[in-house]
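Hi, here's the filled form for the chain we discussed.

Project: internal
Contact: R.S.
Residues: 178
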Amino acid sequence: MNSGDDTHESSRCPGCRVELPVTQWPDTPRYNASPACLKVAGDLLGFEVEHQVRLGYLHQLRIDAYGGQHVRVGAPRIGPVFALNGLYMFLERGSGNLDVRTAHGIMANSFDDWPELTPPASVGRLTASDVLAAGGPEQVEKAILTWADEVWQSWPETDRAVIRKLTIDLVPERYFRH
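And the returned structure, exactly as it came back:
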């Protein structure tokens, strides 16, 4: 009951657990995310585009961090595999946007028995909302890097080992920068 103050209804994102004001943003079956969290992800994309000189190299990493944090149980198994593949390639192998997207294409065209990965109970402390609220482009850049690392580290080592092996088995070494 409203006691006269201007309170707003909020909702908790089932993926990252962030509490955000309710929005009319459309839901999508692709992610385990609230409409409000999906809106924040869209706003973060807009911020990235506005500052693409500084943030453009993190485009795929941002997508994969969000995807790895918002895995919908029962969704096609390729989704979390690709999200974690992108995190692995960037964070551990130094691969960039084009390398990761090329790897996704190679993997999709050469393999179809994707492992079933179950998202961990906690998928990192930071959320897309925290990243967007970090401040200017430099702060957002640092926040994206930290967020992506937290998401990658939140997955069990057994799942990360599966992703490492699958990636190394399917993706030519030239797409790894180190």
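Let me know if anything looks off before we file it.
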